[in-house]
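Review form for a predicted model. The reviewer records the input and the model, then writes brief findings.
Reviewer: anonymous (R2)
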Amino acid sequence: MTTITERTAIIAEAEEQRAALMGAIAGLDDAALGEAAALGEWSVKDALLHLARWEEITIAAIERHLEGGPDGESYEDYLAWNERWQREDASVPVTAAKAKSGETWGRLLRLLGSVPEARWDGDVVAQARGAVAEHYPEHVTAIRAWRGQ
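Model under review:
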C-alpha cells in the first residue's frame, strides 16, 4: 500500500509533468501545433492525442483494477498501437485535439485523486507513473528541441 505522502508525491509529479507539457506548447498557434513532422513523424497535435490515448488506457486499467475486473487488452506492442492511433487521429482538428487532451488529463487527475489510500497499491502506482511521469518527458523534450528551447 502507498502512503498518503507517496500518493501526494505521485500526483504532484504528474501535475509537474503536465505543467511542463503546457509550458512547452505555450504560445504555439493552431498552425504550429498541427505542423506536420514537427516531432519526427508527428506534429505537436499528434503528440497531444497520443498522450490522451495512453491516459485513456491508464484510466480504464485503473478502473478495472479497482473493480477487481480482468486485465484488459494487451498493449505490449505499443508501437503498433501508436501507429494505429496516429492514422485514426490524423483528421482530428487541432482544437479538438487540445480539448481531448485537457478532458482526458482532467479525468485521469480526478481518478487518481479519488482512489482511496488503501487502494493505492503497486498496480495503481505503476499505471499513474507510467502514464505521465515516465511518458510525458520524452514528448516535452522533443517539443522543446523542435522549438529550440
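Findings: The CA atoms of residues 17 and 89 lie 23 Å apart.
Further findings: The radius of gyration is 16 Å.
Recommendation: see findings above.
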